Records
---
Amino acid sequence: MADFDRIATSYNHLKRIVFYGQVELASRHFVENIPPSSEVLIIGGGTGQLLAHFKSTHQINYLELSRSMINKAKKVTTDASIEFIHTDVLEWESDKRFDVIVTPFILDCFNEDSLNLLIQKLKSNLSQGGIWIHTDFCPKNAFQKLLVKAMYLFFRITAKLKVKELADFDSLFIKHGFICKRKVLFYHSMVESKIYQQIDG
């Protein structure tokens, strides 16, 4: 897995320069749809800016591989109850069931084989009727695809990320028994935020 500790201090600044705040808008867009008192699992929340938008009744498990990112996330002012967990999600084990899973710009760090394992693994932690909020890049034209390639090159150099291309997230979720219930586009339709719901459980 990649090591984002080296870029934690400049991560938010880089996102603002490249995407003019659209990444954060997309990440938090569906937070308002999360019912009160929900048990929420956030995977790879980075510096935790979206935590500021959760309510006091939300119970959050915050999984993040980067210790530096967690330290920054802990400084975010939020009313929610949060348990920070420093771990690799592929190695994390829990019998806990969550009403909502949130994956903001993290599934793009996995290849298709790892995503198959990850989605199946997390599916077992999702309560019946629960939702999965996924936000990530979905380039629509040659320029956007080139920008994604450039980002992968940057993170390969700075964070030792081994993945080189985006997986087909929609196909993977469908394969594992999910259906997209809602979708919102950001940044010239390059970024998609979606609510998936399990349909085979």
---
Amino acid sequence: MNSEDHAIIIHHFFSERAVPNIQYPVSSIRFLAFIIPLNAFMRPGKFIKRAVAVLLLLILAAVTWYAWLAFPAISGYGAKNLCSAVYLQHRDAGEVIKDDLAEFPLSLGSFSVNKTDSSVTGSVWGFAKRKAIFRKGIGCTLINDFTEEQVRSQPFLLPPTVAVNQDSLPWPQGDRIPDTISADVNKVLLQQAIDNAMHSTYKKKASETRSIVVLYKGAIVGEQYAPGFDKNTVQLGWSVSKSLTGAMIGVLVREGRLAVEDTAPVPEWKHTSKEQITIRQLLQQTTGLRFKEDYANPSEVTNMLFNKGDMAAFTAALPLKDSPGTAFNYSSGNTNILSRIIRHTVGEKLYPSFPCQALFHKINMYSMLLEPDASGTYIGSSYSYATARDFARFGLLYYNNGVWNGEQILPVNWVRETVQPSIADARKHYGYQFWLNGYEAKMPSRRWYPDVPADMYFADGYGGQDIYIIPSKHLVVVRLGLHTLDENKFLREVMLAVTRKG
């Protein structure tokens, strides 16, 4: 662009008119960068007005972009979780909105319960409406890119309800516990540890612990619930669900229907660069798929959970960011692909009842419920509901090396393999859908939980839903709540109670 063109640009800029059909090269941009301050000096009033207008337009564009991505997640999160709280937990809708959905940005949402069709609808200022529907036996499902009619018409052949009076059976087959506990347990110290957790704050926020169950050598030695919750209240496990999904993969491995070394049977990956991804890499979160697990901002995980009816298909279509097996990246999408693999492996007819018949009912977890996405695949990454005692039973299965009532439910070596990190996991803090007591990100020589033995591993969900398994201390500890607590401190205090006799 020559000096004459520069003159045209200057003329139009000062006259506040657009320059028609001119592409500005870098040289002209630099030229304008020099000239704009000169214009501001010569005509400061108009420049300020123009700058303010541009700034307001940029702010409006940013707000619009955020609303476009975030509002559906806010509406979907609130509608889905309120639906499950009302119809599965039998909680008061107003109390759930006040307690569980009160923080920003969820507080922007408005939510209403429709008892006529067992649904909950959410929106933000009337925009981005999302509806979640309740179906007996399978919980709540968010309606998004599937129609409500499509979802309601899905056949779901669930197993028959098991008629068991658990109060009459001893733990862990039932819920009857003895009046005395092991002499190895200092009851005063243990109760103090539980009380501290029940009333703890973490990062200037009340943790709102709702349930704690402590097992020592398989027996319940400590238990407490917040007001409104008890041993019969099912609670959301969030990503504890991933560990449940990993166990179901283990069942299929024991039956010889899957092998962790096999390439993952994902139809979309045939004849692509992703066809070499293995089941082990899905279990260990090393697939290389581009997936961002960020709940504070719009990301792949919020898009998947609140906008997509077929969550596994959404994740399977994502491109590779890294070569499979070379990088650790925690992803709910990987687990939902595993969940769909389970569906394809057992077949459509048996799939709805498979989790209960193959795993949960075998270990006396009769409260467990998994919720499906709109396509009918269980959301293996996130949506499981069970009592605190049933989550403890699941931890006890792993503590007992996959054996229950003398039956080998999981492969003989499954638990040992579960606690082995991938070579791609520099922190050594993840196994087969379980977290490990690996190393801190900023201090690679320091354990993640420095006061807890290295053999501790745990199922962990958003907000501090946890099943801690510490074999060397003979402990299984369940903690469920609304917000996280100082987990290292809590476990340290629990261990202190079982290393000193009362």
